[in-house]
Each structure stands twice: as structure tokens, then as C-alpha cells.
Specification:
about 120 residues, alpha+beta, 5 strands, elongated
Length: about 120
């Protein structure tokens, strides 16, 4: 059974996901300023937000989980402060991130919210 690390970090900038174990570990060292062999999982995403790769070290070697969504996009957390290279997330947030967001459902939800806001602003007779 795979044991995932407790610390989870999401890279804020897109990465070329053709890279594999050693190159991703190099990005963790150089761009994220972390040790890829530490007790942490690092999440990388592509520019369009349709693919993610998770990299972690399980004490015997590197592991990669690679996922492409059939539909929708991944919701990558915003960096706070704005120039941060990574964002720490919880296990629950990672689960939600890996589920992705269906753009059609997101647009429909936005339309519903906008319609409700308009009816609230409409003057009552």
C-alpha cells in the first residue's frame, strides 16, 4: 500500500510534464527550494490545467502519480504571497484538486449566482 507524505505542496507555475523523476526532483530543489527526498509530496501542473504530476520519495525511491482529466481543469491554488513558488495544501484539498472542475458546471453555477444577484437587486413594487 502506498503511503503519501503529510506535507503537500502545489507548484504555482506550470511545468513541462514531459519531465520525469530526476528533472522534477531538480525543479523541487532549484525552483521550490525544497528537498525532494523530504517527507513531502509535490504537485506540478501544465499550462492549461488539464494534467498534473505528483512527485514524492517513499524512502526507497521516487514515486510519480500522473493524471489527465477527461473533461474540465484542475483548480490550482493561488499563491499567497503573490510571488510564492509553492502553496501548502491539506490532504482534503489535494483530493479536491485531483477531482478537477468541469468548466460547464462552473459556468452554470456562475450563471445561477448572477441570476440570484440580479433578482435581489431588482426593485420591489
Amino acid at each position: 500500500m502506498m503511503r503519501l507524505p503529510r506535507a503537500i505542496y502545489v507548484a504555482t507555475e506550470p511545468v513541462n510534464l514531459h519531465l520525469s523523476f530526476d528533472r522534477l526532483a531538480g525543479i523541487v530543489r532549484q525552483q521550490l527550494g525544497a528537498d525532494p527526498r523530504s517527507e513531502a509530496l509535490f504537485v506540478f501542473h501544465n499550462r492549461r490545467g488539464t494534467h498534473v504530476k505528483c512527485l514524492w520519495h517513499d524512502r526507497s525511491g521516487y514515486c510519480i502519480h500522473y493524471k489527465r482529466l477527461d473533461r474540465g481543469v484542475y483548480r490550482i491554488p493561488l499563491a499567497i504571497p503573490a510571488r510564492a513558488t509553492q502553496v501548502a495544501v491539506s490532504r482534503r484539498e489535494l483530493d479536491l484538486l485531483l477531482q478537477g472542475i468541469d468548466r460547464r458546471a462552473l459556468r452554470a453555477a456562475r450563471r445561477t449566482v448572477q441570476a440570484r444577484a440580479k433578482t435581489r437587486r431588482a426593485p420591489k413594487d
